[in-house]
Amino acid sequence: MKWISTILFLFFNTLANVSFSQKIQRIDGTTIAVDSLQAKINYLLKAANISGAAVAVYNHNKPVFASTFGIADVAKNKAWQPSSVVYAASFAKMVFGYIVMQCVEEKIIDLDKPLVQYLQQPLPDIKINGFRRGYHDLKNDPRYEKITARMCLTHTTGFPNWRWFEADKKLKIKFEPGTRYSYSGEGLYLLQYVLEQITGKDYETISRERVFTPLGMNNTSQVWQTKFDDSICYGHNAQGKAYNLMKWKEASAGGSMSTTFDDFLKFYTALLNGKNLSKKSFRAMTSQQVEIKSKAQFGPLSQVDGTDNDAIQLGYGFTVGTFKTPHGRAFFKEGHDEGWGHYSVSFPEKKIAIVIMTNSDNGESIFKELLAYAIADTFTPWKWENYIPYNYIPPPVVNIFPVTTNDLDAYLGVYQSAELPITISITKQQKNLVAQATGQNAVTLQATAKDVFTYTDEDIVFEFSTVNGILILKQNGKQYLLQKK
Hints:
- The chain is α+β, with helices and mostly antiparallel strands.
- It folds into three domains: 12-96 and 216-385, DD-peptidase/beta-lactamase superfamily (Beta-lactamase), CATH 3.40.710; 105-199, no CATH class; 405-484, Lipocalin (Beta Barrel).
- Helix content is 20%, strand content 25%.
- It has ten helices and 22 strands.
- It has helices at residues 34-47, 91-105, 149-153, 185-199, 203-212, 261-272, 279-285, 367-375, 382-385, 405-408; strands at residues 12-14, 23-25, 31-33, 52-59, 62-73, 78-79, 85-87, 258-260, 290-291, 315-316, 321-325, 328-337, 340-347, 352-358, 413-417, 423-429, 432-437, 443-449, 452-455, 460-465, 470-475, 478-484.
- Strands 1, 4, 5, 6, 9, 10, 11, 12, 13 and 14 form a ten-stranded antiparallel β-sheet that branches. An eight-stranded antiparallel barrel has the order 15-16-17-18-19-20-21-22. A two-stranded antiparallel ribbon has the order 2-3.
- Strand 20 (460-465) and strand 21 form a beta hairpin.
- The model is unreliable at 1-18 (pLDDT under 50).
């Protein structure tokens, strides 16, 4: 169901001084016209019900196409402008990697020296006020003494992504540091803290001195500025409703940065051209340091290894992902949060890149198609990233418990939870049930017993009570009750 019927006209603002007939070079040697890409983006936003987007394509490491589309605030029908202030999400991590590599060059910090050696007291004894709550949880696990800047930048510390995602809300080391990739904002928090102790400066000051001021990023900050209040671009859910805006008061290398499309392109252009970085440092930052074998970046499959991405040699550099193609190596960085979906990928040998920002939970659903159309990138590991296309039809599965298409009718409908801010739509496709949660892509369920269906990829169980219209969702040892609307 389309979340809003009034988005028949999409506002856009062209930043680059290009004519609509100008050609854009793609990595396979083919070209497309600017007006063709403009039309494609407008089509995708409408087809996928996306409130707004900002897209830039680089040739010769310079933007040859840069436009904003759609709306920054659905409620007020305000257009997304190049100067609208957006939440950068994990694009901020790429800025942090750029800063740390400068510090490595200047010998302020060593990539392989244990971080505890830079501190004046044992890490577990350090008390930190504010958003970061210290490291006392690590007191009985001496493995923290092995963690280095290299491990933090390559997401191999062993930390979870965030401690508050853990059942007990405690920080822990989940595997031997340095042995496996597992995305972790906590690792970057730790490195940020150490860098602040070494320099005697807070991270906002470091960012301003090393990136924002030199690059003329006058509307970018790691903490919210009151001057941003009149230019807010909101993130929106799948139905087009704006999320509450978080105005960060504490700088976080993991993702507190607010910026504009204009400003972010200044940073990305500087990065692509190695400004204020040596060629050696740029190459190290954007080349594989660790290989990635997991079947997915997040969720249960992040701990299951496979060969799915062996053909592209998926890996991670310093705060950016890496892969290889017949057109040369590539590095990428994502940004994701409620209401936001961003992606950037560069092919250094071709000097071709793209930056995509969206302010919708549906935004990531156009990445696969847009990347292929704009720059002929059919190599980005979209399944690993969970960038399931908006028009994706989940494949059928073989039911363990026999059911007919008529049997499935009893389960169809929309179920609502009093505990979770989601609804789950249950439809059918031949002899399979298909479930789609708010802001998520559809998945095929397997009938395993009477009134019981599972989504095996993420170990989720759906138990139905057709008499009273109840659905019990079980995952990770927890269960949630949903009622048919």
